[in-house]
């Protein structure tokens, strides 16, 4: 874990979206195509990729994790190592780019709770353990992420959620992380949710779970969540949305030095028009890199989705750093410049000495775009204040404030 958890310099990577067949490439796995894709990622000067096995293809039956699929995952990781790229593996896919990928043994005639059914949970544990164990001896294997935004299956707006309590979510996460650790002890294992964990009242996956379980806190920053609609492509709230989530997450962390991984961030059109994608990229990453404790940035995504594939939301087709024929786009060139500028540099941004206090009993919706807390933070950010976030119950705890370098605390009502 030391290699991943306490880097001297921030990490820069991409969520790997294969150019041929998208994530369906596992059905027709072609290692030469994978190598060509990874060559183009490495050419940007990035140091890691996050990869996505499709759960139904890797575990099509509850008691079968396909050995050949696992071999292909290891081959991908080895190809990445040859190009100087570390690998993080997301296990439970789960949900990707508006599509759900669930094995047949969890749906329709076999419908059972993803988070609570004893047989399903035991099978998930074995699947995650198997993937982790297969990669445990690879030096470039960072660790597992339990799954990609699996929390979307637990609550609205999913059309058919498996509803659970916060306690059940906690228990499930602990079991999944333990399975990853059993397969590959000491690696950088974590879990990752979409922003309902921070913004949606009553959501069963909680900020405390996100900021305390696993080796790091993962945040996924998408400004199509109402931020860019309210503030425009160049508003402080939009350009600093990723920084906001990084700082918001620290309010729930028990360890002031806990690393935060900006695991997804992108420039979604038309809210960020393609001609302004590089400008947004530069601003968003500059703001994120101004946050102490940032482990690294993983852009969504490596390559554009092919127009030969149907039914994706329009914005999904153009999110890549590279085109579908592996040419760098302006956003890709921007990330390459930033990664190059940070190579070999220590990440020691100034402390954020002014914090905005999240009031006692404040609902999570207050932290969402349009909420009183979010909008107050955005005002301060627009004024150049660099606000941290602290919960009201910790304002009277000098040791906690001191551990983060906080010397001034503002309330929402103080912000004009």
Structural overview:
It is a single chain. With 416 residues, this protein is α/β, with parallel strands linked by helices. The protein folds into two domains: 2-342, Glycosidases (TIM Barrel); 354-414, no CATH class. The protein is 35% helix and 14% strand. It is built from 15 helices and 13 strands. Strands 7-6-3-2-1-10-9-8 form an eight-stranded parallel β-sheet. β4 (95-96) and β5 (99-100) form a beta hairpin. This is Glycosyl hydrolase.
Keywords:
single chain; 416 residues; alpha/beta; TIM Barrel; 2 domains; 15 helices; 13 strands; globular; disordered N terminus; Glycosyl hydrolase
Quick rundown:
The chain has 15 helices and 13 strands. The protein is α/β, with parallel strands linked by helices and 416 residues long. The longest helix has 18 residues.
Sequence-ordered SSE layout with sheet pairings:
Layout: H1 2-5, E1 11-15, H2 31-42, E2 48-51, H3 55-58, H4 67-82, E3 86-92, E4 95-96, E5 99-100, H5 118-135, E6 141-148, H6 166-183, E7 190-192, H7 196-199, H8 207-212, E8 217-221, H9 227-231, H10 236-239, H11 241-250, E9 260-265, H12 277-289, E10 294-299, H13 330-342, E11 354-358, H14 372-382, E12 388-391, H15 398-403, E13 408-410
Parallel strand pairs: 1-2, 1-10, 2-3, 3-6, 6-7, 8-9, 9-10, 11-12, 11-13
Antiparallel strand pairs: 4-5
Helix pairs in contact: 2-4, 4-5, 5-6, 11-12, 12-13
Q: What is the name of the CATH architecture of the largest domain?
A: Alpha-Beta Barrel
Q: What count of structural domains?
A: 2
CATH topology title of the largest domain: TIM Barrel
CATH class of the largest domain: Alpha Beta
Order of helices and strands: HEHEHHEEEHEHEHHEHHHEHEHEHEHE
The helicity comes to 25-40%
> What overall form do the CA principal axes indicate?
globular
Strand order of the largest sheet: 7-6-3-2-1-10-9-8
Strand content: 5-15%
Low-confidence stretches: 1-5
Mean pLDDT: 96
Count of DSSP E strands? 13
Quaternary state reads single chain
**What's the N-to-C terminus distance?**
44 Å
Major β-sheet annotation: 8 strands, parallel
């Amino acid at each position: 874990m030391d290699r991943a958890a306490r880097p001297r310099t921030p990490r820069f990577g991409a969520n790997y979206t294969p150019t041929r067949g998208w994530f369906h490439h596992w059905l027709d796995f072609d290692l030469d195509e994978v190598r060509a894709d990874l060559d183009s990622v490495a050419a940007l000067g990035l140091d890691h990729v996050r990869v996505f096995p499709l759960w139904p293809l890797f575990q099509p039956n509850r008691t079968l994790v396909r050995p050949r699929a696992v071999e292909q995952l290891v081959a991908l990781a080895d190809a990445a190592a040859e190009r100087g790229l570390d690998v993080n593996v997301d296990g439970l896919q789960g949900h990707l780019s508006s599509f759900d990928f669930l094995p047949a043994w969890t749906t329709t005639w076999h419908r059972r709770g993803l988070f609570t059914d004893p047989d399903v949970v035991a099978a998930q544990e074995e699947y995650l353990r198997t993937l982790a164990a297969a990669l445990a001896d690879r030096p470039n294997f960072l660790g597992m992420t339990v799954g990609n935004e699996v929390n979307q299956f637990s609550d609205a707006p999913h059309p058919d959620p498996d509803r659970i309590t916060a306690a059940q979510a906690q228990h499930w996460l602990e079991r999944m992380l333990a399975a990853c650790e059993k397969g590959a002890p000491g690696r950088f294992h974590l879990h990752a949710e979409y922003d309902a964990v921070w913004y949606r009242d009553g959501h069963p996956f909680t900020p405390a779970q996100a900021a305390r379980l696993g080796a790091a806190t993962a945040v996924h920053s998408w400004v199509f969540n109402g931020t860019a609609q309210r503030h425009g492509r160049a508003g402080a709230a939009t350009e600093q949305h990723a920084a906001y989530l990084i700082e918001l997450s620290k309010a729930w962390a028990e360890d002031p030095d806990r690393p935060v991984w900006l695991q997804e961030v992108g420039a979604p059109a038309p809210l960020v028009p393609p001609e302004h994608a590089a400008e947004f990229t530069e601003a968003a990453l500059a703001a994120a890199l101004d946050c102490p404790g940032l482990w690294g940035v993983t852009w969504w995504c490596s390559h554009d989705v092919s127009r030969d594939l149907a039914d994706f939301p329009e914005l999904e087709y153009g999110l890549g750093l590279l085109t579908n024929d592996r040419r760098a786009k302006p956003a890709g060139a921007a990330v390459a410049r930033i990664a190059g500028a940070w190579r070999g540099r220590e990440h020691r941004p100034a402390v954020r000495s002014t914090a905005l206090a999240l009031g006692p009993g404040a609902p999570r919706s207050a932290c969402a775009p349009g909420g009183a807390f979010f909008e107050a933070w955005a005002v301060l950010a627009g004024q150049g204040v660099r606000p941290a976030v602290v919960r009201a119950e910790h304002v009277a705890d000098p040791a906690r404030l001191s551990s983060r370098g906080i010397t001034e605390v503002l309330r929402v009502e103080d912000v004009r």
